[in-house]
Design brief:
alpha/beta
């Protein structure tokens, strides 16, 4: 079953982690840290296995981070998409971003993590709409990486 918001899942995670006598640290583990991503897409409760693995590895805490879609972030994305697609105001990317407005204020991403022997082990949960939001963000960021080469037309010969 696809979820629209991960808020109830977050509540379940908090209770499960605390039930195992572990603490939570509000932190996001980024790509700059050596990491291993937990992969068990076939099991919707794989996060429970992840928490139990963390405890078995001797972790006394888990990092926990969530992302809520904020209205300002969506407005900024829309503005950048409109500028990137100018003069086409009805570009499919713009329509797709506008459709995300129904998800403002909802939790779309949760990351759990623990460190073991210098490596961060991570578990991520996302909603389908959050993945679409991320793809749109990446497309705008990719557009910003385009460099236009203005050749100097003045010859000094």
């Amino acid at each position: 079953m696809l979820q629209d918001s991960l808020l109830s899942l977050k509540d379940d995670m908090v209770a499960f982690i605390e039930g195992h006598g572990m603490r939570r640290v509000p932190a996001y583990v980024g790509d700059e840290v050596p990491n291993v991503l937990w992969e068990d897409d076939s099991n919707p409760d794989s996060w429970k296995d992840f928490v139990e693995t963390a405890k078995a590895a001797g972790a006394i805490f888990l990092t926990m981070s969530e992302t809520v879609l904020e209205k300002g972030d969506l407005e900024l994305l829309l503005q950048e998409l409109q500028e990137a697609n100018f003069p086409d105001d009805e570009a499919p990317e713009v329509d797709e971003a506008q459709s995300l407005a129904t998800h403002v204020g909802k939790v779309g991403y949760i990351q759990l993590g623990f460190m073991h022997q210098g490596v961060a082990f991570l578990h991520e949960n996302t909603t389908e709409w959050y993945e679409r939001y991320q793809r749109l963000l990446e497309s705008v960021e990719g557009f910003g990486d385009i460099v236009f080469n203005d050749e100097d037309t003045d010859d000094e010969s």
